[in-house]
Amino acid sequence: MVNAETRPQPSGVFGETAGLEWLISATPVGYAEAVAEMEARTEAIARRDKGELIWLLEHPALITAGTSAGEGELLVSDRFPVFKAGRGGRYTYHGPGQRVGYVMLDLKARGGDVRKFVHGLEEWLIRTLGAFGVTAERREGRIGVWVARPDKGAGYEDKIAALGIRVRKGITFHGVSLNVSPDLSHFSAIMPCGVSEQRYGVTSLADLSIKANMADVNEVLREKFTEVFG
Fold this sequence. Notes:
Elements: E1 4-5, E2 16-17, E3 20-25, H1 31-46, E4 52-57, E5 62-65, E6 82-84, E7 91-94, E8 98-104, H2 114-131, E9 137-139, E10 142-148, E11 157-168, E12 171-179, E13 200-202, H3 214-229
């Protein structure tokens, strides 16, 4: 895997355990490169040449368009590179300070239920944020994980994490993103997940005054993944 390194820890974090490999990239990974790597790995998993993989990384500042992205949802077209993504969902911003988790898992071996799997990804994010003292929740009709912001006004909520997957030959790829400390002004280039109401914004751990670095987040993601998916 290009620009990536495994980080075995005494606790078993970031190593290969029970056939599931965890990988963390030390430097930002370009989007086209990441997609090529994911597609190659999913093919290898489908052939049973390699095991499942969760890849934690950051991207340089860019925008991806999911299969449901609407024409009017890209508000500034020349600020960041824009990539068409085969995953579900709409426009999403990725950039430094955001933890992306690409999940290449054998869905058939995990029950084959896509809806249940997506629910599990949401639960993974919710429990991870809960470990940092953040109450995050699902919202009907709005993709991602949300945080109530009564400090901004009644009914105000901010999105703190997003998700979108694709399944090929029974193997999942793409995944989740969690805002740790990105430049939140970059999200103004898009209508995040097609939500335009002023009371719905974007936040991060840093914006919520939570002191956490990527290493902290990585460790909790590993722990909570095991809780949710085994």
